[in-house]
């Protein structure tokens, strides 16, 4: 099977977008937010460690109940092009005490299982560039103590690079070297296409804890899960306080609605430094 077919390439949509780009209907300026953009108010950025004990106990109880009821699944996004760590797949790189990023993440989930007496489903999203090495790493290490029937691997989509004029880019004359993983924004579509979403829902799943493979601070916390449930949020994003030099997406109100805005989408005149936190790409 050809790589494009195997990894869900939508040729018709790609060609339509490519033609729109060549004709000038799509350009970089289209990424900039055109609506009214405002700083997030303080009340919309709650700080868990500053809440009173009684409230935290409610959140913890609710989160604990959801975990024990098997309503939580864990998503680890491990896609991309394996280019940032010397040409090797990031998830299998040793990061601490001889352990890889994936090992640390999966061993944390194993501790959650032991603490709550459950076996949460773990969904690992790879790309065409990370799939083979990731599967080999996990199998050779016997899923790092997890039940292999509860670890589900699937792949994000694939796309083709373009030259600035919109023509197809070919590296050294090899078409397959021009392919790339389009980023983790395609998770919801790839997850649905894989069939794991419907199976998760059919088995009683209700909440997903989503994080990047290299974010080792994105650990399951019953209080955060309970907050998400009790406050009835569509999505909860975990944020980190900015220090000098930090860049990335951040919360802002766009036409009155609070959302995560990628850094390149802010208007040039908008002072991103005025937002004291940034997005860690950890979501519920």
Note down, in words, how this protein is organized.
This protein has 284 residues and is of the alpha/beta class. It is built from eight helices and 13 strands. The strands form five sheets. The chain has a four-stranded parallel β-sheet, with helices on both faces. Helix 3 crosses helix 8 (222-230). The radius of gyration is 20 Å and the shape is globular. The model has no long low-confidence stretch (mean pLDDT 92).
Main traits of this protein?
globular, alpha/beta, 4-stranded parallel β-sheet, 284 residues, 19% strand, 3-stranded antiparallel β-sheet, 8 helices, 13 strands
Quick recap:
The chain has helices at 3-6, 11-23, 53-68, 101-116, 131-140, 187-194, 196-202, 222-230, and strands spanning 37-38, 72-77, 94-96, 99-100, 122-126, 151-155, 159-160, 179-180, 207-212, 237-241, 250-254, 257-261, 277-283.
Summarize the helices and strands and which ones pair or pack.
Layout (H helix, E strand, L loop, with lengths): L2 H4 L4 H13 L13 E2 L14 H16 L3 E6 L16 E3 L2 E2 H16 L5 E5 L4 H10 L10 E5 L3 E2 L18 E2 L6 H8 L1 H7 L4 E6 L9 H9 L6 E5 L8 E5 L2 E5 L15 E7 L1
Parallel strand pairs: 2-5, 2-9, 5-6
Antiparallel strand pairs: 1-11, 3-4, 7-8, 10-13, 11-12
Helix pairs in contact: 3-8
């Amino acid at each position: 099977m050809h790589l494009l077919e195997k990894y869900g390439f939508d040729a018709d949509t790609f060609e339509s977008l490519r033609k729109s780009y060549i004709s000038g209907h799509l350009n970089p300026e289209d990424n900039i937010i055109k609506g009214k953009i405002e700083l997030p108010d303080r009340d919309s950025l709650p700080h868990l460690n500053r809440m009173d004990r009684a409230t935290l106990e409610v959140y913890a109880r609710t989160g604990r109940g959801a975990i024990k009821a098997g309503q939580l699944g864990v998503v680890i996004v491990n896609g991309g092009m394996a280019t940032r760590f010397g040409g090797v797949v990031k998830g299998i790189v040793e990061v601490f005490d001889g352990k890889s990023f994936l090992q640390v993440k999966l061993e944390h989930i194993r501790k959650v299982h032991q603490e709550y007496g459950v076996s949460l489903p773990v969904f690992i999203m790879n790309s065409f560039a990370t799939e083979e090495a990731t599967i080999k790493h996990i199998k050779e290490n016997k899923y790092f103590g997890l039940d292999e029937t509860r670890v589900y691997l699937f792949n994000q989509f694939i796309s083709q690079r373009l030259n600035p004029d919109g023509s197809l880019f070919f590296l050294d004359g090899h078409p397959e070297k021009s392919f790339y993983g389009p980023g983790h924004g395609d998770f919801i579509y790839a997850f649905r296409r894989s069939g794991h979403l419907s199976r998760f829902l059919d088995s009683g799943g209700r909440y997903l804890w989503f994080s990047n493979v290299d974010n080792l601070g994105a650990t399951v916390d019953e209080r955060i899960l309970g907050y998400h449930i009790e406050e009835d949020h569509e999505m909860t994003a975990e944020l980190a306080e900015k220090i000098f030099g930090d860049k990335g997406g951040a919360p802002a109100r766009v036409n009155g609605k609070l959302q995560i805005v990628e850094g390149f989408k802010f208007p040039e005149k908008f002072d991103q430094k005025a937002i004291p936190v940034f997005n860690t790409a950890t979501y519920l």
